[in-house]
Design goal:
The chain has helices at 3-10, 14-21, 32-48, 98-112, 127-135, and strands at residues 57-61, 66-73, 82-89, 117-122, 139-146, 150-158. It has 159 residues and is α+β, with helices and mostly antiparallel strands. The chain has a 6-stranded mixed β-sheet, covered by helices on one side. Helix 1 (3-10) runs antiparallel to helix 2.
Length: 159
């Protein structure tokens, strides 16, 4: 997602956003949660004066070019080479393996960014995401309190 795409989405210019990214957007997107994320992504990109490659990417179903979610990293790799993944698949597309595939792609991309360790933080109630991180070989290393989401389990593994 580019700054121009994010700006168009946040301004409600969805046809322009679709043309910029070459995707079909859901009519009810973004919700307030995703809009908040997008504002942070936009700030990251504009403050850096460039596309933040570690930020959000659209998850697109190739058959019809529909955007079905988004995935990316919480930030660039830290000094120790750790990078945290995040992904969302819109409700009507869940349960079809899209999030698992997106997370696998993030692992590959993390290597390109120079990361050495992958991390994911997952709510104990998010059974599908718990299954995804375990499928990818991440191991629970601790717990943390997120100011928005509450208790999260922290999973990591070397790349």
């Amino acid at each position: 997602m580019t700054p121009a795409f994010i700006e168009a989405v946040l301004d409600g210019r969805l046809s322009e956003a679709e043309a910029l990214l070459g995707v079909v957007l859901p009519g009810d997107w973004p919700d307030e949660h995703d809009a908040g994320h997008m504002r942070r992504w936009y700030q990251d990109m504009t403050e850096a004066g460039r596309l933040a490659q570690w930020r959000a990417r659209a998850i697109t179903r190739l058959a019809d070019e529909r955007m079905i979610g988004h995935a990316g990293f919480h930030g660039p790799p830290d000094d120790a080479g750790m990078i945290e993944i995040g992904y969302t698949v819109f409700p009507e597309f869940r349960g079809r393996g899209y999030a698992t595939e997106a997370a696998r792609r993030l692992l590959d991309f993390a290597k390109e960014l120079g990361a050495r360790t992958i991390r994911a933080s997952v709510s104990p109630e998010n059974v599908p995401s718990l299954a995804i991180v375990r499928t990818l070989g991440l191991v629970k290393t601790g717990e943390q309190m997120d100011e928005v989401d509450g208790l999260e389990f922290v999973f990591e593994r070397p790349l």
